[in-house]
Write a structure and sequence with these properties.
The chain is mainly α. The protein has helices spanning 2-8, 32-52, 76-97, and strands spanning 14-17, 23-26. The mean pLDDT is 87.
Length: 102
């Protein structure tokens, strides 16, 4: 996963592991629209990595997004909570798209 994250984000961005399989990225000077582009690039890079890897499984990612608005400043905890909500909303949508909801 580290290779994929390095290939996706800029050297100036901050990538940190915050839990077993959880990572956080602080994309410096990224606008709202670029956050979606970064999520799409991460998915593309992960698919390419999976295609090249010789494993019996694929790595997957679900990425929640939170953006800092200087007009309405929020602390790190609030931004992480917003990203978590975004992540779980996306996971719920993906489950609904699967047959049987599983």
């Amino acid at each position: 996963m580290a290779e994929v994250l390095r290939a996706t984000f800029r050297e100036s961005d901050i990538v940190a592991r915050v839990g077993g399989d959880e990572f956080a990225v602080l994309a410096i000077e990224a606008a709202d629209a670029s956050a979606e582009r970064l999520r799409a690039r991460l998915s593309r890079n992960l698919r390419a990595h999976n295609a090249q890897a010789r494993r019996g499984y694929d790595l997957t990612v679900t990425a929640g997004i939170a953006t800092f608005d200087p007009q309405r400043p929020a602390g790190v905890d609030a931004l992480m909570a917003e990203a978590d909500r975004s992540l779980y909303d996306l996971k719920r949508l993906r489950q609904q798209d699967r047959p049987g909801g599983a």
